[in-house]
Amino acid sequence: MGKKKNIVLENLLVTGYAAEGKSLAKHEGKVIFIERAIPGDTVTVMLTKNKKDWAEGHVLSFQEYAKERIKPFCSHFGVCGGCQWQMLPYEKQLEYKQDQVWQSLKRIGKMELPPIMPILGAAHTTAYRNKLEYTFSNRRYLLREELQDRQISAIQDAAGFHARGVFDKIVDVDICFLQEEPTNLIRKEVKRWGIENKVSFYDIVRHEGFLRNMQVRICRTGELMLNIVLGYFDGDLVNRLLTHLVEKFPAITTLLYTINAKVNDSLNGLDPVVFHGKGYVVEKLERFSFKIGPKSFFQTHTAQAERLYQTTRDFAGLSGKETVYDLYCGTGSIGIFLSDQAKRVIGVELIPEAIADAKENAALNEVSQADFFSGDVTELCNNAFFETHGRPDVIITDPPRAGMTGKLVSKLLEIAAEKIVYVSCNPATQARDLQLLSEKYAVGAIQPVDMFPHTHHIENVTGLFLKH
Hints:
Elements: E1 8-13, E2 16-17, E3 23-27, E4 30-35, E5 42-50, E6 54-64, H1 90-109, E7 131-137, H2 144-147, E8 158-162, E9 170-172, H3 183-196, E10 211-218, E11 224-230, H4 235-248, E12 254-259, E13 273-276, E14 281-285, E15 288-292, H5 302-316, E16 323-327, H6 333-337, E17 344-349, H7 352-364, E18 370-374, H8 377-380, H9 383-389, E19 394-397, H10 406-415, E20 419-424, H11 427-437, E21 441-449, E22 459-466
Parallel strand pairs: 4-6, 11-12, 16-17, 16-19, 17-18, 19-20
Antiparallel strand pairs: 1-5, 2-3, 3-4, 5-6, 7-8, 7-10, 8-9, 10-11, 12-13, 14-15, 20-22, 21-22
Helix pairs in contact: 1-11
């Protein structure tokens, strides 16, 4: 296979899964990574990248489908980027995720490992998300068959999700199965109201328009928070739209609006305004309550978050005498969840707003033995800090997808706590960090948890103990 463009490989048998949901096949000793195929499919692939010992490509056609393929339950599957694996039975998804964790830890971690525990699958694989964000746009994503029809224009109002790999067009969603009702009913009503009242939908290219995004958060406590994000302020329109929603959907316990005139969609630096209700919702994990505002971070799958935290607590193996440091603590949920069994909990997080939330959550649960600090762990945790707050017996670390910084890994090796529980949403960066920590730590337990059915995302909890 030379370097020339448009190389097409025919009749490739897909044999396995790689990370990030790509599947793989072999051709003349070279590994080919393929999008949107599953093991057992026979496909014709056009290469998009071609290196010496690997290549990437996309499917041009299927010669044969894998026996285990099932019909996706969502009409938008494959167009919207929300789910990647609806064509796989859930048991198979779990099998591949378990294998992905094991392969990452073995291949990248290159250390001695205990047997991996069976992955904790979700009891409900639809309507499991507690938070969804929809986008309003005046540019609708057209399906392939619609592109042939000159009568159909892409310039039309839509409400839904970004089309996969397309920044400026929105899939007009009929029913999304990721969150329970009234999520679809509310989105459709805002769209209908906007069109009926001739209100502009946001134009992402020109950065103008009134209706921009909306976030729906539904809690197991029955509370529902809706935050409508608007491109500019118009008092009359805001009042009419929000009054209409409160009257039509009594399920909404808190309704806010946020004016976002920025180029990007993030709510950083913006102030949501409470229109109705208390301005936040309360969610429960076991007996603990967590106050969640429109900008708070909270694990997206409540039931599985509970199992993730239970695993973390089990791996910490607390007796009531330990000082626990919860790094990347966010709004304090893990630290508070295991506070019953610890003498002291110290949470550290870079984002000051998250620390404010964590302190409120500790007060809400009457957890007096927890303290939360905003700052960089590597700078904060010096000898003076330890003298005041105690050295950690157990460290819990829950970093973002990029994993821990090299500086933090060095700091953990220097602190040398008896136990580290590493909660990860990216087994590859976790494996890299475990390799660095193996200078002083051994892996005692591995527990994958599936937080996001029908996607290739996977969480993994690893328990480490200090080698003596």
